[in-house]
User: What shape does this take?
Amino acid sequence: MADARGVPPGYVPQTVFWVTGPEGHAIGMVRVRHSLNEGLRHHGGHIGYFIRRAERGLGYATKALRLALAELERLGEPRALLTVDSDNVASIRVIEANGGRFDSEGVDEDTGCAFRRYWIDVAPGQSTQG
Assistant: This one.
């Protein structure tokens, strides 16, 4: 779905990257959404990532997010919005380690789960205000 011409209405173009370990095995994935629609602006953001449970705590998520931010900058986005479940302390640390600044909290209307919104500057000199 990286080519905007093939994206269904209500969706945005995105690129999916695999995170691989030292032996080349897939241990996670990262989605980089090229832009935001109103739904993603509220909950979802520009980047979503997942690392297999057995590989967590080894720095893969921090590095994958850093590379995803570079891709978003290459696409011309000056800032990245990330959302994370409020109780996901490990992911909050990954976001903050990559320069994430807390913006606000919300509640997912479908699940009732609380989430936090963070902005990360991907281009020098950009503001992190929502």
Q: What stands out?
A: Residues 5 and 13 are 9 Å apart (CA to CA). The two ends are 26 Å apart (CA to CA). Strands lie at 14-20, 26-33, 47-51, 79-85, 101-107, 114-121. The mean pLDDT is 90.
